[in-house]
Write a structure and sequence with these properties.
The structure is a homodimer. Chain A is α+β, with helices and mostly antiparallel strands. Chain A has a single domain, classed as Ribosomal Protein S8, Chain: A, domain 1 (2-Layer Sandwich), CATH 3.30.1370.60. In chain A, about 45% of the residues lie in helices and about 15% in strands. In chain A, the strands form three sheets. In chain A, strands 2-3-4-10-5-6-7 form a seven-stranded mixed β-sheet, sandwiched between helices. A two-stranded antiparallel sheet of chain A has the order 1-11. Chain A has a two-stranded antiparallel ribbon with strand order 8-9. In chain A, strand 6 and strand 7 form a beta hairpin. The longest helix of chain A is centred in the first third of the chain and has 19 residues. The radius of gyration of chain A is 20 Å and the shape is globular. Chain A starts with 6 loop residues before the first strand and ends with a helix. The mean pLDDT of chain A is about 95. At the A-B interface, strand 4, strand 6, helix 8, helix 10 and helix 11 of A face strand 4, strand 6, helix 8, helix 10 and helix 11 of B.
């Protein structure tokens, strides 16, 4: 890609500074802003634009709306040797994750499996960014969070679920961990929003309009209902994520989060669940041997023509971004500079 | 449904006796046979034919092939306050589950989350049958197991994964728990086998032939590669299940299980992972209130026209089966009677 007049090239450190400054100018605390800036920069580095600096507008809106607390200090409480709870205090997910992570890692190492239950938290960030450090600590992890109702169950037309992402991390002995993170909607909501901003139509199968009819208009789709991936199976997973990251840990469903928002268009308030496993507690002295068998599995997939391991594109982009920086749409940059000013 | 000449109606207790007798006549121990018979009968009761008495042929084949141990006695070992390991001794999953279940429930209740790692186990049974008792004990659970390589990654043509089912259970205050259990292949392998037995073609999107071309011929699809559900997202889940139920717990991948079988066509040998959560350890005094919010979520889905909660069809069939018994194809019944004789 070469820059055109509608895009500007920024280094990753400029991205991180810009993000921090925009957040600080919006009244968000340094601790929250730093954690968010790291998350947004990691997404830009991996060419995941829908979770990059574009998301800063959502953080600013959340605080301006008076619902989110940009200065919240998360409190971490162990509920058992295997459960860590963090009350995010209506702040944002990146800081809640960072503050709870050492306790989660210690608990998983101690008993082999541990759960982090994040409550009372605004979610506007990429979850894979929070699973990578767990993999770097040698842990396998699953991350789940709900959203605001925007996705209808397969066969229906009324939105019930959020885009309810499912994320997974696996440590690899050489190089970056294997991490995937996908919306259980057909696509991430941010994809539809970016199509809307770009004046592009969306493919059929992504969304229904408010009358339940298939649509290619991103605005009508955002006002109607998004569709789940994978039909009734994707629907089942979306429902599971609602239950695990919602009622099971005492937090909101995507419907309740929608009501709570009162139409402000803020990021969703709710829960996040991370399950961390320490393979060494299962495998003991044989850990390295069994992790090597996983590498055989990875190569049997990636060596096939036409197949890419989830995350491979992100990791390739990461190398390029570190060297060349990333392109940001000029219009978005103007909006962000206006907030920073 | 009314019986025709090609089907016979059996009561559930006749199904269970038949199953036990067929297994005992094949040299399987009473303990293994009883557990399998309960599993197969539960599947028939829920009109899940692909996991019903049809599966008995697979158990018999597994033992006749000299690889599975039909008389194995599973050994249960706690590895930590949150990990229970059961070595199935090359026996079958139902007895391994039944013997480990009390320890799993106790561990989950003690620390809030616990993992059951079943190793060295032949898998030929419906996993949801083993999650229901956990839900009846008030626990939320996830069940995962791999298989023998038969499913290609999205975009590829070489089989790598088994049909790698994903199962989930959730306790409900009134009536049967919410449980789903789906293959991460487009359909369960048993579905394709039943099409083959019935002389029916399969839809495009279920399988590729041995040259990687889409096929509607069940025999060619079984000899080639099945396809994952949900494209690259379903592929990611299938891979996650391989890793969690395989290398993470020191057990076989679906490729390794295929090699181990040496072409006998036995059920897959490998691992099974069950994660059990006790909501009461997260929610304390507020458990009932939050579980009631889950009921609101369920009803917002099931009240939509055209939408069915996963498992609803099974539960409706269960009521009918208890009253009327179930229909079994006469040809299958003849095969089973010949083994019992």
């Amino acid at each position: 890609m070469t820059p055109n007049q509608e895009e500007q090239r920024l280094t990753l450190s400029s991205i991180e500074s810009l993000a921090r400054d925009v957040l600080l100018a919006s009244g968000i605390s340094l601790a929250q802003a730093d954690a968010i800036a790291r998350n947004v920069t990691a997404a830009e580095a991996d060419a995941c634009r829908s979770h990059g600096v574009y998301r800063l507008l959502g953080y600013v809106r959340a605080v301006a709306g008076g619902k989110a607390d940009g200065r919240a200090v998360p409190t971490v409480t162990p509920l058992s040797p295997a459960i860590i709870r963090v009350d995010a205090g209506r702040g944002f997910a990146p800081l809640a994750n960072e503050m709870a992570r050492p306790s989660l890692i210690a608990a998983a190492q101690a008993v082999g499996v541990a759960v982090l239950a994040i409550n009372n938290c605004y979610h506007n960030s990429a979850m894979w960014v929070d699973l990578e450090p767990l993999a770097e600590a040698g842990l396998v992890s699953i991350g789940l969070t709900a959203g605001q109702r925007s996705v209808a169950p397969h066969g229906g037309s009324m939105p019930v679920f959020g885009t309810n992402p499912f994320a997974f991390g696996w440590p690899r002995p050489d190089g970056a961990p294997f991490v995937f993170d996908f919306a259980t909607s057909a696509v991430a909501r941010g994809e539809i929003e970016l199509h809307q901003r770009g004046g592009k139509s969306i493919p059929l199968g992504w969304a229904l309009d408010a009358e339940g009819r298939p649509t290619t208009d991103p605005a009508l789709g955002l006002a109607g209902a998004m569709l789940p991936f994978g039909g009734h199976k994707g629907t089942a997973l979306a429902l599971m994520i609602e239950l695990l990251a919602g009622p099971m840990i005492g937090d909101l469903t995507s419907q309740e989060s929608f009501v709570e928002d009162e139409g402000r268009g803020s990021p969703p308030l709710g829960g996040e669940l991370i399950i961390a496993f320490d393979p060494a507690r299962f495998l003991g002295d044989e850990t390295a041997d069994h992790m090597a068998r996983a590498e055989t599995l990875f190569s049997s997939i990636s060596r096939q023509d036409g197949v890419r391991l989830p995350g491979d594109r992100r990791l390739a982009a990461r190398v390029q971004s570190a060297r060349e920086g990333v392109l940001v749409p000029s219009r978005l940059l103007d909006e962000l500079e206006a907030i920073r000013a």
